[in-house]
Amino acid sequence: MERVLPALILLLIPAASGRFQVQSPVKELVAEVGSDVLLPCTLTPGLPESGLEVRWFHNLFNNVVFMLKDGIEGRQQQSANYRGRTSMKEKPASGNLSLVLRNVRLSDAGKYHCFVENSSTVVYEEDSMDLNVVGLGSPPLVSVALQDSAVVVSCSSDGWFPTPTFFWKKENRVPEATDPETEVDKNELIRVKGRIVLKDSSEGPVYCGLRHNVTGKETGLYVTVSDAIFPRTSPWAIVFWLLLLCTIAISAMMAWLLYSKQKRKEMLLKEKEVLIEHLKWEVEWRTIASRKESISFDPFTAYAGLIVSPDGRHISTSENVQNVPQNSVRFDMEPCVLGQQSFWEGAHYWETEIHEQNGKFWSVGVALESVRRTGGQRECPEAGIWAIRGTKEGYYALLTPPELIDLRSHAQRPQEPVLLSGVQESRRIQRVGTYLDYDDGRVSFYDVDTYEPLYTFRGQFSHHVYPFYYVGPGISFSL
Questions:
Q1: CB 316 within 8 A of CB 302
Q2: 82, 63 in Cβ contact below 8 A?
Q3: Alpha-carbon gap, residue 43 to 21, rounded angstroms
Q4: What does the DSSP 8-state code read for residue 346?
Q5: How far apart are alpha carbons 163 and 212 in whole angstroms?
Q6: Using an 8 Å Cβ cutoff, are 30 and 134 in contact?
Q7: Distance between CA atoms of 108 and 33, rounded to whole angstroms?
Q8: Is the pTM of this model over 0.90?
């Protein structure tokens, strides 16, 4: 009796002071996806349920896995992820607070805390453990397929986490580790797939192996490929393929020769069409050029920045504005000039030679006697001017808005058929022929070097018209 009494006193001291201990005997657990796991926790000494709160939480205090308060399970405070999956086997009075977690998921991995608080004495204690969740994978599934003259063995397995070590092994050789193809399913588990190519049956049986990197568990199987599966090449097959290749080569050569012949025929036809078109241009131009007339620049209409030669056959720009007599017919703002000859009936033709040098643009055409001489000049039929303009970028008929002239000829005077197969380079017009049919209301322009018609204006004239020129900087004209 004397020995029992001190022991009872030692047991009653922590209970009287409200102190207790919470302890987890295991600090790290491993559970497989879909299994049930027991999270151990002990309470020393065991306490009555009244005034006692037992809380299991995952990582964060508010992420409640299970709660027991005053002996009543707190399901409203429990996180939705754990409802219906947790329970305690015994009551706190027994000192066993171990929690059963059923149907383990990958998201369950982490730190679990066993927390106990006595509200009457405001004393609390807790302990924790780590839960690792793994997927141990399914037995591998093997398939065999032919690829050219070899056999491809494919091996796949589902339900792994984390990604396992995948390897192949041939008989007793060192395993060959490979990087398998991986996919993640709706449960966040990993599916792995690998393949190996076998040239012939002498390589022996192959082993498809997968090893879990956490548990060390290994699963796999051997595959033996029969020699009969490997394709064999027949001598007749070789002859067949050689004949087929020769036939294809001969057919391709014949097709290429026929194609080349057809393209040559089309090319000759186009060359013939181009030649005929050039001949038409030449006939038209020669008919019109038979009326060629000699004209000259009128110095009394020339802008002060233009220099007219004494014979009136040449005009160019000057760097300085000249001191010339002012009159009512002179252009005072734009570098323009009219011809001395005026036309009021009949058909007339004259030619202008263009020297561009470093000039940017110029205009050639006809204008009414009443054309504006003061201020800025607008070149268009509405302003009494029918002209074409040459620029560095191309040639334009001066309408509203200007219309691009497409030069169809890419050669100089066509003494020979134009070879369309050659490289066509852009050219510059050096001589412009101007044809005026006053009675018919027609003004046409031609490239004298190629006979190509450039553009034709149509209208009606009721007053005298004169040759018109716009002489841009760096430009000169000769008649």
A1: no
A2: no
A3: 6
A4: S
A5: 8
A6: yes
A7: 9
A8: no
